[in-house]
Amino acid sequence: MSALLLCVASVARTADEATLAPEPPLVKLALAKFHTLTRAERALLEFADKSNIGRGKFAIAGTSAAPLDPSNDPKNAAAWPHDRDIRAQLIRWMAVDNEATLQVDPNGVRVVGARIVGGLDLDHVRVPFAMTLERCSIPDAMSLVSSEFPSLDLSGSYTGPIDGENLVTHGDLFFGNPALNQGTAPNRGEFNASGFVNLMFAKIEGTANFSGGHFRYSESNPWWTKPLRMALSLSNSEIKADVGLSLGFESDGCVFMPESVIGGDLNGYGGRFINPGNCALDGDGSVIKGGVPLGGNPMGFGGDFTADGIVTFGDARVGSIFLVEGARFEGKATERHGFYAAGLSAPGEFIWQNVTLENGAIMDLSGAHLGVLLDDEKSWPAPGRLRVDALTYDTLGGVSSFDPEWSSPADVSARLRWLGLQNGFHSQPYRQLAQVLRKNGDDAGATEVLIAQQDARFSNSNWLGRAWAQFLKITIGYGHKPLRTVLWSLAVILTGWLIVTLGASAGVMRATWPDSPPASEVIGYEKLHPLLYSLDVFLPFVNLHQEHYWWPDAERSGDCTMFGAKLRISGAFLRYYLWSQVIAGWLLSAIFVAGVTGLMRND
């Protein structure tokens, strides 16, 4: 009996000691400042206190420490009890109060499933600890202007507008899906911002991951965001590693990131950029030291890259592969939409494969420089929607290093069909194609392209211009096949030989006509040689003295035989033919000289 009493007394004493255990230093400081704490606030303070050795991964505001547990879904935050509330002032106090800051572990604020009450204002604050508010409800505005963090993670949270202009993180920035942070397929848990997220001039020394995040334009946005309907801005930002806009990323409004500098890849696999009739993704002038993959996700989730609006990388510089594969560019025929990359510099591979350009979407590579251009015919835009004037590339077509089983057409006929998709005539794309073909040893293909260039040039000329163009094409291939004149000249000379022979046989060739016909037959008079006579008439700078001694008599006609058939030859007809042969000689000789010297080429 006495032993039982001693045992009960011992248990009671232990309970009293637990009740009287001192509060963690951070909790004591908070109570002195705020007087009362919610259960979630106490859990946060206890977790963050540097004296907490076995703290776990998160402070638990709800009932589960698993971020993807349904009880932590912030879209249901309206039904959460108030003991899950954490005041924004408490978080700010932890960052700016010297006594509090000394008690916070470097792991910092890590809470899951909380509701942050009030606007979180950390403008110009150097937060000395990492901050993770995962799957939290943060409905009021967050102001992080010129603030500084070791790292910042809002994965899976539902937020209002966020102003993070000039934000600095010395590590990663996560505004995405918490499952992706762990390398698993996304399921629920998407970051959602109901207002404008402004990260202009931000400096992120790690990864900026927005993958799986949802961003949307709001009419309450600042006035300067409204013309483009901005949802997310990374304008003039600097990110040392990758930027993720993939795997379930969605923007209802413009993702605005011109003049940004990205040290790794800009990953858009499976991203959706929706801003009809406006700019969907703006990367103009950006420097991306890695690659830009835009397309379907090779891991099998997240869907295809989709844009409704303009995707633009004008004057951007990309250090590695620029891949647009399995992508869709949507939009109405009456709205400006498609892919614009005028002035893009991508010295690696530019791959345009399995792309859908709906309702007249434009593909604009004018003024761009690409290392290797690889595309497929089914991904080309509709006629009149291709812009490649001033585009240059080192290599065209062939097998891709990205997918060795897929190759891009390099044959001349396919490439001429490609150039035929341009809106109007532009000569430079033909010259560029011919240059690359010639560099690769296909001189015949290069000549064919340059002839096609002139066909396109004269296609909209009047009938006289088209007739002249047809003559130049037939005779010397617009100057690219000058030796054709030799064949034409030979044909004219041989025809003249035949006709003069027939005229002599018919007796219509008269000696020294029309200058001074002899009164009588002169012994030793220059004999008529029809072949030499034809040459003498045709060649403008050669005198074989045949034409001087012989000329058709227009008053005479005679009969001759050719291949057993009787023909009647008129001296007048023969004279007209020889006049035309003289003109042909001058014309073909001039064209030959111009073609050989390059005067008639425009390449």
Would you give an account of this structure?
- This protein is α/β, with parallel strands linked by helices and 603 residues long.
- The protein has three domains: 33-344; 345-460, no CATH class; 484-597, no CATH class.
- 28% of the residues lie in helices and 25% in strands.
- The strands form eight sheets. The chain has an 18-stranded parallel sheet that branches.
- A hairpin with a 7-residue loop joins β41 (398-399) and β42 (407-408).
Please name the defining characteristics of this protein.
alpha/beta; 603 residues; rod-shaped; 3 domains; eight-stranded parallel β-sheet; 46 strands; 18-stranded parallel β-sheet
Q: Structural class, from secondary structure content? A: alpha/beta
Task: Give the domain tally.
Answer: 3
Q: Radius of gyration in whole Å, from Cα?
A: 41 Å
Helix content: 25-40%
Strand content: 15-25%
How many helices in DSSP terms?
A: 14
Query: Based on CA inertia axes, which overall geometry fits?
Result: rod-shaped
Contiguous low-pLDDT stretches (5 residues minimum) are 1-19
| Overall residue-averaged pLDDT value | 86
Alpha carbon gap, first and last residue: 114 Å
Largest sheet: 18 strands, parallel
Number of strands: 46
